[in-house]
Fold each of these.
Amino acid sequence: MMRGLGTTRGVIAALAVITAIIAAIVWLAPDERALGDGIKSVYVHAALTWTAMAGLLAAGALGLALAISNRDDVAEWMDTVGWVALGFFILSVPASIASQLVNWNGIFLDEPRMQLSIRALAVFIIVQIANRWLPSKRLRGAALAATLAAVLIVLRFAPLVLHPKNPISASSSAPIQLTFAALFALSLSAASVIVWHVGCARKLLPVAAEPE
């Protein structure tokens, strides 16, 4: 089954199924006492953000591994995971804007978390692109690991004004927490499917033949 994700049809089918399940869960998701059904946009935003953060952690760990090992396959995996994490990071920004519009009736670009997220995204894009021109794989790994560590630390300790602190995990509602956990798991699964597919395309993994 996993080898089938190396094919275009396989990855499209897997992502379509995951997306359909996510849509169904969001539609059926419980409301929150203060936000009402506005919590549904928060579910999506938080799931994408957590997936991006998990991807950044994985890419940073691969960067450290590359700095130590200097292996070509580790460099390829670091690059792959980094770009997929970046994709989910980008998706989390419009999801955040949509959540602001739903719950705050406007977009607040002065919110520190929002400003830092946009700046961190810009830095990550620059490093991902510039990293390919560094003279050694070890330097590439160390540079990416250091950058991602800085990004994660800055985002972790960003001051909050309007943005609540961990509104879902702090909730006493088990259905709300379970809904988010399911959406995060599905979002992480989608990212893993994409990483696996790209790994197959880069011949880092065995590939199943495309059906006729």
Amino acid sequence: MRLKGKAAIVTGASKGIGSEIARQLAGEGCDVLVNYNTDMEGAKKVKSFIEKKTGRRAEIFKADISRFEEIKAMVEKAIDCFSKIDILINNAGIALWTPVFDITEEIWDRTLDTNLKSAFFASQLAAKEMVKTGGGVIVNISSLAANGSMDCLIPYVSSKGGMTLLTKGLAVELAPYNIRVNTIAPGTIDIERNRKTDPKYPDDWIPFIPLGRVGTVEEVAKPVIFLCCEDSSYITGQNIFVSGGETDYVPMPRSEFARKK
């Protein structure tokens, strides 16, 4: 076990990528605070899995991480439970598909508060605790959207682009305290939210992915675990895309050569 005895917070851990990260952290020896906002049953399932399959401790905590006071309460809960915080995974996020002229102040604020403000203040508060124990690791879960624009997602891409620079800023300022900060940016991943958003998902997306398939939550969680381990002890301030080559593909009409293959 590469993370035996460590204590972690994972935000948005009741489903999808966050739940898999929580499970894999526990599998490597972590005790985990499983944060959720609306899906209590999902959080309970993650807690049950961790305790039964790994023998590690898991606690669930409801918090709307767009609100500072609830972020603070979450961090305090982790300290109450584990007496320390070694790892913070800022995973929780929302994407509200809205055309540019329909974006309201409420949509903008809700997206930026949930995706970006929360990552900063959770990092700030957790880092204060990490300093007391000699260091730690923060991993921000961003998106392929941080690399460019997407239709009807201006607030979302703005928040994820901001997360890239937030990571770099935190990495520089927290390095003297032995706290490493990195970002994992998933591409098209097979999660329930994506299937609900797009009825043609994932078929319409596959032509834009050089590896010819969508990714899995397991494939996102594995590099997160790597960044939490001593195997990555000299890596900080980086944005790692987990996208099957999607970030490298420039859509264009297929050449005659390609059509013959």
Amino acid sequence: MTNLSQGSLISLSNISQPDVENLQRLYKFRKPTEVLTFLDRNSFLVSLLLEAYNYIRSRFPNAELFLEYVPDPEIDDPQLVVYIATSIVNRQQAIDNLEQIDEDWWLNVSDRTQGKIYLTLD
């Protein structure tokens, strides 16, 4: 059982408590129950999210990072979105930084995500 910040418990069978704790240290969860349930069903994403953190931090060292489960009602293909809430005032610079993450890392691993993770600016 994993204890969420609101005091509720969720049962996870495919991801470990240490992995959950690591992710919670790196990312803020929006709708934590939905995020953790999605990750439990797609546990292969945990290592990618841990890996992504370093690449995101290299371009956005002071940004807050959020994970949010986003269902798509038009297609049965929900995603976990990584929102990067940056304090970079120049929006084009923030976009350039995100594109650099794409070039440096994301394009090489995007197949491994099976389309279930999306990185964007908040």
